Amino acid sequence: MLTGQPPFAAPTLEATLTQVLQTDAASPRSIAPEIPLDLETICLKCLEKDPVNRYGSALGLAEELERFLNHEPVFARPLRPIERYWRWCRRNPVVASLSATTAVLLVSFIIGSPIAIYRINRESQHAQHNAEARRQQLVRFNVANGNRLVTEGDLLSALPWFVESLVLEKGFPEREAIHRMRLEFLLKQCPKVSRFWFRGGVLDVSSWRAPALSVFSPDGKRVATSHLTANEETHTESEVAVWNVATGELAFKPLTIRAKVFDLEFSPDSRSFVTASGKFSKQGASLEGEVRIWNAFDGSPRSLPLRHEGVAYCAAFSPDGLRLVTGTRKRDTAGSSASDAFLWDVETLRLLAPPLRHRFEVLRVQFIDEGRLVLSVDTQWIAEGEQHNDVRLWDARTGASLMEPLRLPGRMAKARAEGGRVQVVCMKSGAPGEAHLYDLSTAKLAVPPMKHSTFIVDADLNPDGSRIATAMGIWRWTRPR
Predict the structure, then answer these.
(1) SS3 183
(2) Which CATH architecture group holds 13-91?
(3) Using one digit for the tens of pLDDT, what is the confidence trace for 199-229?
(4) What is the CATH number of domain 213-408?
(5) Tens-digit pLDDT profile for residues 451-476
(6) How far lies 423's CA from each of 90, 363, 368, 441, in Å?
(7) What CA–CA distances, in Å, run from 320 to 265, 268, 317, 367?
(8) Residue 326 main-chain phi, psi, to 5 deg
C-alpha cells in the first residue's frame, strides 16, 4: 500500500518464499522517497523475521500508528548499520566468515606492511653499515701492507696494494684524491720501464737449473738475454737474443743452444759475448758443458766450442778482452764433486795454465786487480738452502794458487782489489742477517760484522772500499792504512 508493490516479489512461489525467509524487505523510502521515516520504521518492524522484534499485538501496532498520526514520537527505531550487518551474518554464515577472514587479512596487511618495511629497512641499513665497516677495514689493511713494503724499500711491490685501496674507495672523491696523491708520489720514486721484450719459452727464475739471464754490454747499447724454450729432462734448449737498447729491436735472429745457458757475459769492447752452458741427467748428474764466443752484431760464432767436463756454469773476460776464465760444475748422482776453472787465450783458444783445481762446484769466476788476479768461489751444497762457500785467489798469468781457501759464512756479493789488497763482501745466511767484509791478504774480517734485523739479499762495496750498501743502509768505516 505504501509503495504500490509487495515487499517480496519473484517469478515463482518458491522463490518468493525463499526471499521471505532469507532476504530483508526493501526499504519503502528507496521506492517512494516521500514516505515519512517514522512510517517506514513502523512498516519494517512489522516485516521483521524474528517475532520478538515485531509488535507484540495488533493493539501495539494501532497505538504506534496513532502516535504517528498525532505527530508524537514513535517507539520503533530504524536498525543501525551494525545491526543490519549482524543479521546478515547470521543469515549467511559462510559468506560472512569469508568476508571476516578477508577483512582480518586486509587489516593485518595494512598494519603489518609498515612494520615489515621498517624492519627490512633497518636490517638493510645494518648490512650496509657492516659492509662499509668491512670495506674500510680492507682499505686500511691494503694501505698498511703498501706502507710496510715502502719502508722495506720494495716500491714496485707496494703499488698493487695502493691501487686496490683506490679501487675500494671508488665513489668517495675526497678519499680517492688521497689515494691518487699517494700513488703519484710513489710512481715518481719508482724506476721507470723504458723497454719490454717479449719472448716465448719457459722462464723459471726460481731455480738454478733454469736461470733466465740478462746483461748490458759495457757500452750500454745492447742487452743480451737468455731463457729456456724447451725443458724435457735432458732434451733442453735455450734461446739467446741480443737487443738494441735504443730501438728495442733484435740485433739478429735469436740463437738456439741445445743446453741450459748458465752464464752470459759481454767482452769489454762490447763486440762479443760468451755463453756458458751444459746439461744434467734425469738423476741430476752433470753430463757435458760448452763455452762459446759469439759476434754481438750478427750472432755468428767467433770461436769453436770449448768443451768442458761437467756443466760450464760461469765465464768472464779479462779487462783487456784477451783472456777468458771459465768454471765448471761437476756433479754425480751422489752430489757435488771436485770441479775446475780454466784460463783461455781468446784468440788461440788454448789453455794458458793448468786447470785451477777446486774441491767443490765452481759457481763464480772473475778477473780482478786489472786482470792480474783471478777470484773464484766454489760451493758445497749441504742441505736445502744451506751451503759452504770457499773463495780462492789465483795468479792470472800462471794459474798458481795465491792463498788457502777462505770459508765464507754466506754467499759472496762483491769483490774489489787495489794495490795488492783484495776485499770481498758476503752475506751470512739466515735471519738475522749479517754483512761481512774480508781482507783476503789476512784471511780475516776487515771490520766487525754489520748486523741486520732480517735477511740480506745483496750488498755492494763502493770503489774505494770505504762503504758497504745493503737494503738497510750504508755502512762506513775508517780504512786501514
Answers:
(1) helix
(2) Orthogonal Bundle (1.10)
(3) 554 444 444 444 578 889 999 899 998 888 7
(4) 2.130.10.10
(5) 877 777 777 777 777 778 776 666 66
(6) 116, 18, 10, 8
(7) 14, 7, 8, 10
(8) -130, 155
